[in-house]
Amino acid sequence: MPAPLPLAVSLGDPAGIGPEIIAEAWTRRDEAGLSPFFVVGGGDVLAKAARMRGLALDVVRILDPSHARDVWKDAIPVLGTLDAEYRPGIPDETGAHLALNSLVEATSRAALGEAGGLVTAPISKSELAHVGFTQPGQTEFLADAFGRPREDAVMMLAGPSLRAVPLTVHCALAEVPDLISKDLIVHRARILNEALKRDFGIEEPRIAVCGLNPHAGEEGRFGDEEQFVIGPAIASLEKEGLAITGPHPGDAIFTPRARKAYDVAIAMYHDQALIPLKALDFDEGVNVTLGLPIVRTSPDHGTAFDIAGKGKADPGAMIAALRMAGEIAARRASRG
Are 272 and 173 in contact (CB under 8 A)? Predict the structure, then answer.
């Protein structure tokens, strides 16, 4: 079932691989079963990125998201006239301005109910910082944009082999022990549990929780966060009726046998979740933001400036992000 409204796609950094994988995704729209989408800004960038890859793609600029379906079969719809020079692999301030404006406008269109969801192409956080972007990443930007506490914006990485949620995200590893808490685990597990029911159709989600320390602390020998923080949070959630287990050792929870026992794993820090996800599903990994009033997905990779414009970028994760956003939007619409 397609999304009820076209999806809004932000361009990402025009010097990265975002434009070319968006263009490639549009050319594969039928075989991939994608819902209609429109891109905010960057019409010339998309056209040149498509030519670089040898793609047959026409760009049609639209004035309103409702016009996207009218041109979808024949051309990629681009909302507005914002643009920049296409210089793959050479990020600059003009491109950063385009990336930020595209993200802001695409978010606004989704917030206004003019788009079925938001799909964000990769940005360069360091480049955006030069033009006024103050958040650690797009997940935090979206939480701020909707006036939600950042604890409510739950990042879930999803691929064919694994779903994983990092409890803490964009912070130094040394800060993690002080940032994890019983309240944070409980809060995010509740959001995750409801989102898996509503957006993924899993009636009784099974959640596995990683420990922080080697061997999940081994009864306090290698750290006591499992005993005094993680374990009590799990016990509290069990009393609420959640199907949740742990804390599990981080070196065993992602094995093929272990993955059969849960629908999603909650990791304690960024790399504990992203390393296994990228090892298993790099070309199909999707970043989904749960806990927001809109649907938001993104390919789970960066700008890849080093291969931009060379025809090497795999569009698989962008296609997966577009497909997942359409599926979630359709499921939400069907539930009313």
Answer: no
Length of the chain: 336
β-partners of residue 265 are 164, 208
The fold of 154-291 is Isopropylmalate Dehydrogenase (3.40.718)
Dihedral Cα 210, 301, 33, 80, nearest 10 deg: 130
CA-derived radius of gyration, the chain: 20
CA dist 21 → 29, 227, 282 (Å): 12, 45, 15
Token pair belonging to 8: 């809004």
Are residues 153 and 145 in contact, defined by beta-carbon separation less than 8 angstroms?
no
What is the torsional sign of CA 161, 163, 166, 167?
negative
Beta bridge partners of 61: 78
CATH class (in words) of the domain with range 1-149+294-336: alpha beta
pLDDT digits (tens, 9 = 90+) for 28-53: 999 999 999 999 999 999 999 999 99
pLDDT tens digit string along 113-128?
999 999 999 999 999 9
**Residue 179, Cβ density class (10 Å: 0-12 exposed, 13-18 middle, ≥19 buried):** middle
CA dihedral 122, 280, 180, 258 (to 10 degrees): 160
Q: What are residue 128's phi and psi, to 5 degrees?
A: -65, -30
Distance CA 268, CA 70 (A): 45
pLDDT tens digits for range 234-279: 999 999 999 999 999 999 999 999 999 999 999 999 999 999 999 9
Delimiting residues of CATH 3.40.718.10 domain(s) in the chain:
1-149+294-336, 154-291
